[in-house]
Amino acid sequence: MWFSVGVLSSAEPPTFKRDIAPIFKAKCQKCHGFLVKQKGLSLRSLKSIRKGGESGAVIVPGKPESSILVQQLSLPTKNPKRMPPATEKLQLTAAEKKLIARWVKAGAR
Asked: CA-to-CA distance for 107 and 56, rounded, in angstroms?
């Protein structure tokens, strides 16, 4: 039986461990990791993400439009609140941003 793995995986809800943690590790933990937690936010674990940072919770499970994390990833490049900042070399791709929004919409598990 022939099938497309991409089709199957796109139907599955994204998980933190499998889908989101690798993105955060590669592109976000320089500033929001174990040693450095800018604005008090660590993106190293699901527990630390749910805890949030200085501004409180950064995700609202099931509601990406209400999640600060998703909002800041979607801001225009010149907006100073955009994450990652435009000055960072490693930027999230459109596909990575969409995956993070899907993860939050699916309950951020």
From this structure: 18
Beta bridge partners of 53: 56
Global pTM reads 0.88
Beta bridge partners of 37: 32
| Number of residues assigned to the chain | 109
**Distance of alpha carbon 32 from alpha carbon 109, whole angstroms:** 19
pLDDT digits (tens, 9 = 90+) for 43-95: 999 999 999 999 999 999 999 999 999 999 999 999 999 999 999 999 999 99
Domain ranges of the chain: 13-105
| CA gap 22, 93 in Å, rounded | 13
d(CA 75, CA 11): 27
